[in-house]
Amino acid sequence: MISRDYIIFDKNGMHARPATALLKLRRQFKSEISLKKDGTTIQMKSMLNILAMGLKSEDTVTVIIEGEDEAEASRAMDSFFSEDMKNF
Amino acid sequence: MHGIGVSPGISIGPAFVIRKTLKAVSGIIIEGVEMKTIEINKFDHAVEASVCEIEGMKKEGETELPKTLVDILDTQIEFLTDPQIRTDVIEKIEKENKTCTDAVIEVIDAAAAIFENIEDEYLRARGSDIKDIGNRILRNLNPAEGPDFREFPENSIIISEDITPSDTISFDVSRIAGFATKAGSRTSHSAIIAKSRGIPAVVGCGDDLMNISNKTIVLIDGTTGEVIINPDSKIIEAFRSRQKEEREANAMLEKLKELPAITTDGNKITLLGNITGSADLEKLFASGGEGVGLFRTEMLFLGRDSLPGEEEQFNFYREVAEKSGNRPVIIRTLDIGGDKNLPYLNIPFENNPFMGYRAIRFCLSEKEIFMTQLRAILRASAFGNLRIMFPMICNIEEIRLAKQFVQQAKKELLESKKMFNDEIEIGIMIEIPSAALIADQLAMEVNFFSIGTNDLCQYTLAVDRMNERVSSLYNHFDPAVLRLIHFTIREAGKNKIDVGLCGEMASDPLAAVLLIGMGLDHFSMGASSIPAIKNIIRKTDKSKATEIWNRVKEMDNSEAITEYLKTLQA
């Protein structure tokens, strides 16, 4: 299992466009991926659930990955949260 | 009636009222595994059909649809195929014996309610996206009942609870005169799309809007947010003439936009804009602005309870840099203190804030705050044509010190392997008389000057223009102020550095000829003033303007100067 914390860079927070991109990216991996904030954990599968977390700019979110391709998935999440998130 | 004008323009036309609130729950109870399986299948088919519709819209318009619209459609597909929504619907069918239609209504209502309670305005607006996909699924579940939006008479004003993203895309824009909605805010997708398609629109009109009946004549003003039902001929006449004026003004602006700001004898003058963030750029470029002469960064620092961090600042500046492309952007470091106080910095009370701890004085002693901003600006400089400008420089030590900070910030970025433009130009505001008087010496230290006439005028004449008893003394045509401006421009010219002017004087039509005559390189002002100033520049002969300045130079009072300049315009 890999668990890492990320800061939301986009000034609008985790809004519809990045969430859509995140879900598209997530589907490339077999591992179970979930998001955790303030004791709430959700599976990274549902647009509704991701947006309902209400992640704001500069919030910290934990990404938890478990499964056979967890290393690659983690690298992809790394670049999503530290690079791609700045471009929405 | 009044709403929020979100997309400018005036439209008059027959109302076409769309009522499509989610239907009421029927309460029908279904029984047996077989019935339930049928209902679940119905749901899956309706979702599939809905996805096909949206995919169709994407293909239909892919070549002309802007990327933002394609993104919105992708998001809609994500919502439609959301596993959480499916799980909830199936649970209602299987465990609560509900019909598919009832289950969808309840699940969508609950999901929309979650968003409507979120604090964040942007996310709150996503509630209408959820309702939108709910309606689409319901229409595909009961095809006979679906309204067909394409069946409205030409030049209709669409009246609706809310216009959803997919509505705005499927509307035949050429046939709509405008729209007014009961709900919505400036950040709703509908507002954004209406603006990008140039459809006049008013949102957030409130409940009364839905009392309008079909075919009633409605007038909407997307600038002021007015909605008038059954306007009489006088009102229509007044609005028609305003509409005509707006069109003519736009046409002139449009014509001038393509033309260069060049004097009749071929001298190019650069027209730049004053902005507070990337949101101002669209209007600036549309008005013919060739870049940014003053990017006021303090707007990012005001109205919050803590300092913005390096990342947030970097993103804010980068957005402006990127959107401006090759155009120059002069970014002014924090001009805070004085009347612009930040409560969270706890700056002690001052008797004389305009002569106190502000702008560069504050930055040079609050080293961490200054370094954070410089690093953010330098990093953003890798994405466009940024230049740094320091405000309120009063002597040469300050600029030398500020430059050392820039060097230090560059060193730190090199060490952390962050990109920046090493050749970034550095300039200063000339807004304190002492700086204007040593312009020849300061010119050796920097790449450009920008004259801030508002403060220069106030400090030269020792007059607080907010104080009504003395404000009549405040005048940028005062001979002393003009001498300081002229000296600054002349010394910049001798040292071959760029010199601009970014105070209110830059947008004063009377001053334009005089400033050209003094040899000013660039003017920076609010976007809306650019066409008028460009118009004057294009009618001015620079050698004549120089003669005009030579005559003004001999005059000893601002009244005579103003009168003389007025006679030239007549």
Quick overview of this protein structure:
The complex is a heterodimer of chains A (88) and B (570). Chain A is an alpha+beta fold and 88 residues long.
Map the helices and strands.
The complex is a heterodimer of chains A (88) and B (570).
Chain A: E1 2-7, H1 16-26, E2 32-37, E3 40-43, H2 47-52, E4 60-66, H3 70-82
Antiparallel strand pairs in A: 1-4, 2-3, 2-4
Chain B: E1 4-7, E2 10-18, H1 33-61, H2 67-80, H3 83-96, H4 100-116, H5 121-141, E3 156-160, H6 165-170, E4 176-181, H7 189-197, E5 201-203, E6 217-221, E7 226-229, H8 233-258, E8 270-275, H9 281-286, E9 292-296, H10 310-324, E10 328-332, H11 359-365, H12 367-380, E11 385-390, H13 396-415, E12 425-430, H14 433-437, H15 439-442, E13 448-451, H16 453-460, H17 479-494, E14 498-501, H18 509-518, E15 522-525, H19 530-539, H20 542-553, H21 558-569
Parallel strand pairs in B: 2-3, 3-4, 4-5, 8-9, 8-15, 9-10, 10-11, 11-12, 12-13, 13-14, 14-15
Antiparallel strand pairs in B: 1-5, 2-6, 6-7
Helix pairs in contact in B: 1-2, 1-3, 1-5, 3-4, 4-5, 10-12, 12-13, 18-19, 18-20
List keywords for this structure.
heterodimer, A: 88 residues, alpha+beta, Histidine-containing Protein, Chain: A, four-stranded antiparallel β-sheet, 3 helices, globular, B: 570 residues, alpha/beta, Enzyme I, Chain A, domain 2, Glucose Oxidase, domain 1, TIM Barrel, 3 domains, eight-stranded parallel β-barrel, seven-stranded mixed β-sheet, 21 helices, elongated
Oligomer designation = heterodimer
Low-confidence stretches of chain B: none
Task: Note the gap between the termini of chain A.
Answer: 29 Å
The succession of helices and strands of chain A, N to C, reads EHEEHEH
Report the portion of residues of chain A in β strands. 25-35%
Question: What is the CATH third-level topology name of the largest domain in chain B?
Answer: TIM Barrel
- If you compute it from the alpha carbons, what radius of gyration of chain A comes out, rounded to the nearest whole angstrom? 12 Å
Task: Determine the CATH superfamily of the largest domain in chain B.
Answer: Phosphoenolpyruvate-binding domains
**Spatial order of strands in the largest sheet of chain A:** 1-4-2-3
Question: Greatest contact pair?
Answer: A-B, 24 and 26 residues
List the domain count of chain A as a whole number.
Answer: 1
Overall geometry of chain A:
globular
Number of strands of chain A: 4
Q: Structural class of the secondary elements of chain A? A: alpha+beta
As a percent range, the share of helical residues of chain B equals 40-55%
Q: Kindly estimate the percentage of residues of chain B that lie in beta strands according to DSSP.
A: 5-15%
